[in-house]
Hints:
- By secondary structure, this protein is mainly beta.
- β11 and β12 form a beta hairpin.
- The chain has 5 helices and 16 strands.
- Helix content is 13%, strand content 37%.
- Strands 2-3-4-1-13-16-15-14 form an 8-stranded mixed β-sheet, covered by helices on one side. The chain has an 8-stranded mixed β-sheet with strand order 6-7-8-5-9-12-11-10.
- The longest helix has 12 residues.
Amino acid sequence: MSAPPTHGQIIGGLSTTPDLAAALCDYRDVLGLRLVETGALDAGLAAAWGCPASAGAAMAVLQPQSGAPCYLRLVEAPLPPDFRPTTSYGWGAFELTVQDVYGWPDRLVGSGFTVVGPPRALEGMPHFVPMQVIGRGGEMLYLNEVFGDSAGSDLPRAGSPVDRIFICILAARDRADSVSWYADRIGLDAGETFNLAYSMINKAFGLPADYRSDLTMVQKGRMTILEVDDYPPVTLERPGPADALPAGNALVSLAVDCLDKLDLAWITPPLVHPGALYGGRRSGTVRDPAGALLELVECGAVSG
């Protein structure tokens, strides 16, 4: 049995998709995630996210076969015609730890995933090899095989072909401001900053291949949580209705010790919502400085 989540640990990532049945074929049948829940998005939960227009939408919840306490949620929603991945502020990608990264391009042939970055080592980051894919809803996933820990962090090895989310990528309006907000408001730690030619950003914006960007890791101790990226001045707002879930990578859920100790402007007061991700625990949602939806779930005692 997996250990209970600790403060700051990623316990969920939510993406929207225009065809839930087709997306389930991708996530369950191709990636091998285990389907744990299906149904309509609860109106109270949609309101807690500030997305009342998404209430009643078809939703599915999946979990790695390893049993890691991390859930991928898919919510059916129309795909805005002007949405292009990796060009708008907010959540840009979910990074999942996987086995045999070099074998995944062939396994994805015929699926709804488009490989936009084949497996390759990153400059200055020899401890894992990532590849990047885009799903039917424009959601970006990094499939990363971990080979070792970095100097400043412990990286999880996959216990199943596709395992848990271990880094969420944030496209920031102001990288330093976002890093400070997560440190001061959520109680996380600023990690290493890297400067590199980031191919996903450069391709998305048509920038020269050698254009360099800064990114800062946000951690809790040696546990990785977020990668906060500097985005170019031409970055857009995420398209779509303001009262519905965003397109693509829509929402991230983190475990926290105690909601009452956090000085945050909750969209609605924290409550207990139904679902496997919550396990009878309260959650509350805020928007971070980049406008990204951040759901925080208490990992302390279960509410009575």
